Every structure is written in C-alpha cells, then in structure tokens.
C-alpha cells in the first residue's frame, strides 16, 4: 500500500562542474524508481526530479560523464520540496564561488527538506546551515570536516543522518540509502521496499561506515620509543600486548607508559592494540579462507567470541558478515 499517493513533491539535485557522478545520479535513480513503480499501479508520478546547476545544460561530472542540468539559479524556488546537495572534487571551486553560495542559502531556506551526499556537507556547513546539527559525511573526510566546521555535531560512522529538515549521508552510494529513507518517510515502507528490490539495495544497510574505512585513525608517535613500539606491535600482533608487557618493552613504568602512549598516539594502548588487531583480522578475512577461529587467534584475540564482540562494537557487523561483503573476488570466476 502506497501512503499519500496524491502527494507530489519537487526534488532538485544540485550539482556543479566535477561533482561526483553517483552523488548526483544515485538519489535521482531512487526517486525515479519510485515513480516507475507507482506508474505500474496506474498512479501519477510522486516526484518531479531535476538536476539543477549554476547554468542549465551540459554538466561534466568528476568521473567524466556529462549530464544535463534542466534547472539553473534563475529557476523559481517556490514549492521546492527537497534539495539534494552533491559532493565531489568540484566542491572546492563551488566553495569559493560567491554566487553559488548565495543561491544555495536561498534554496536551503526555501526547501522543505535538505540533504547532502558525501562532501556536499561542506557546502551546507560553509553557509552555516549545519550549525549544531547532527551530520555525517564520507569517512575519509570526517576529520577534516569537523576541524573546518567545529560547530557541527559530526557522526562519522553513520550511513545517513536526519536532524529536523536536514539530512546528510556518507560517501557516494550512501546517498541512495538516504533517498530511500526519504521515500519511506514520504510514502511508507512498502514503497521503499519495492524500490529497494528494484534497485537491489538494502532497505536499511547493516552496520556503519567503519566497516568500509581502511585507514587507522591513530597517530604515529613522535617519541622514538613510542613510534618504535607501534611498528613492533604491527609486526607482532599475536604477542602479549598488555600495558605491563608494552611498558616493559618501552622501558617505562606502566603508569608513565600509558600516559605517554595516549598523549602521542591519541588513544589508549588498549584501544590502539584493538584497532591494530581488528585491521589485521580484516585483512585475513578479506584475503584468506582460514576459519574465523584461526584468524582470531592469529590476530591476537583470545577467542573468536572476543573478536566477534570487537567487530560488532567497532564496525557494527560480525566477522562472518564482514567476510561476506568484503572478501576478495579473486578466483570467484573459477568457482562458478
């Protein structure tokens, strides 16, 4: 059953030269799929969808594919339902363009709902629209966004967030997750499920962004002893890495070592060791067929259950679920 089938909404996806292709086309596809499905029931389109840019016409994406903007900054903002602000390499130029920022401020004010995809959050933050609001972005840019705009409430692990009329999503494909949630809010879970099936998407993607991140957040120590110890930990991940054992190796008392390590690495020794072990386990899960129990011991966890808890706590998914999603595809063709 489609909720509010007579409701119509205008959707503008805002792009600019060198905006990310999927940031623009992904949400567009979700709303277009909703229209396609309701047509099969003899209903009129629920969404009027346009790509808007500074000038109408050809718009080159960051990936080289050229799209067609059907709206521009002279288009009437009255009745604007949702504005989706895309990210991409071109955001740097857009952030410096006074006309773009002025138009965006007006459009944000006029729209009933505003969403950002990936680094599109930078543009909304630049005009002050995200001050005090829960926001997310691509995990690779989360730290930089928070440092530049300290007045936003950043949630770096979220796939998408909603704070009042403002929505934000993580990188690239997560814009489709956000758009799907908008469809569910507008017209109910049955239509959202139908769209998800049509596009082969999760209605709600399991886990958060942490499962996709590949860079450890810990800093390298600047003190010789701490930096050397970090290298040793990486090469001896299954060893005794308790604070007393590490302190002895560094030639410090446990208390002095814990303070020094936390100051240099930006996290406690225990958190650092767990992050290193998780990274090692992730590589083995991606690249090997070894049983989870064997990987847990090799990565320094005392049991597969302890590793499972660490995965759930930090990545939001179990080791088996992680392996299913991220295992190397090498050799799959031979297995078919």
What does this structure look like?
The chain is α/β, with parallel strands linked by helices. The protein has 2 domains: 9-211, Rossmann fold (3-Layer(aba) Sandwich), CATH 3.40.50.880; 224-326, Homeodomain-like (Arc Repressor Mutant, subunit A), CATH 1.10.10.60. 47% of the residues lie in helices and 13% in strands. It contains 15 helices and 10 strands. It has a 6-stranded mixed β-sheet with strand order 2-1-5-6-10-9, with helices on both faces. Helix 1 (21-39) packs parallel to helix 6 (174-187) and helix 6 (174-187) packs antiparallel against helix 7 (189-199). It is elongated, with a radius of gyration of 23 Å. The relative contact order is 0.09.
CATH-assigned homologous superfamily of the largest domain: Class I glutamine amidotransferase (GATase) domain
Query: What is the CATH class designation of the largest domain?
Result: Alpha Beta
Please give the number of β-strands: 10
Q: How are the strands ordered across the major sheet?
A: 2-1-5-6-10-9
> How many domain regions?
2
| Biggest β-sheet description | 6 strands, mixed
Mean of residue pLDDT values: 90
Estimated helix fraction: 40-55%
Number of helices: 15
Uncertain residue ranges: 330-336
Structural class: alpha/beta
């Amino acid at each position: 059953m489609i909720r509010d089938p007579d409701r119509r909404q205008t959707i503008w996806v805002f792009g600019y030269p060198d905006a990310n292709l999927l940031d623009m086309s992904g949400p567009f596809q979700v709303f277009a799929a909703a229209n396609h499905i309701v047509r099969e029931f003899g209903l009129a389109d629920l969404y009027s969808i346009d790509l808007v840019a500074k000038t109408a016409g050809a718009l080159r994406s960051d990936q080289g594919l050229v799209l067609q903007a059907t709206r521009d900054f002279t288009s009437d903002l009255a009745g604007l339902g949702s504005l989706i602000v895309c990210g991409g390499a071109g955001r740097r130029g857009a952030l410096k363009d006074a006309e773009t920022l002025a138009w965006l401020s007006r459009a944000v004010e006029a729209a009933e709902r505003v969403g950002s995809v990936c680094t599109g959050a930078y543009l909304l933050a630049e005009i002050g629209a995200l001050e005090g609001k829960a926001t997310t972005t691509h995990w690779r840019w989360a730290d930089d966004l928070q440092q530049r705009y300290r007045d936003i409430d950043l949630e770096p692990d979220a796939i998408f967030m909603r704070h009042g009329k403002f929505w934000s999503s993580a990188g690239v494909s997560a814009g489709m997750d956000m758009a799907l949630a908008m469809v569910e809010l507008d017209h109910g879970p049955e239509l959202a499920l139908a769209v998800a099936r049509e596009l082969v998407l999760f209605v709600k993607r399991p886990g958060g962004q942490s499962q996709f991140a590949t860079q450890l957040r810990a800093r390298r120590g600047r003190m010789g002893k701490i930096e050397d110890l970090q290298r040793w930990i990486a090469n001896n991940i299954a060893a005794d890495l308790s604070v007393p054992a590490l302190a002895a190796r560094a030639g410090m008392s446990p208390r002095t070592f814990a303070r020094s390590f936390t100051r240099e690495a930006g996290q406690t020794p225990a958190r650092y060791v767990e992050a290193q072990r998780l990274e090692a386990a992730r590589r083995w899960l991606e690249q090997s067929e070894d049983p989870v129990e064997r990987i847990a011991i090799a990565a320094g966890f005392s049991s597969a259950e302890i590793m499972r808890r660490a995965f759930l706590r930090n990545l939001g998914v179990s080791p088996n679920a992680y392996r299913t999603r991220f295992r190397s595809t090498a050799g799959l063709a031979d297995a078919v």
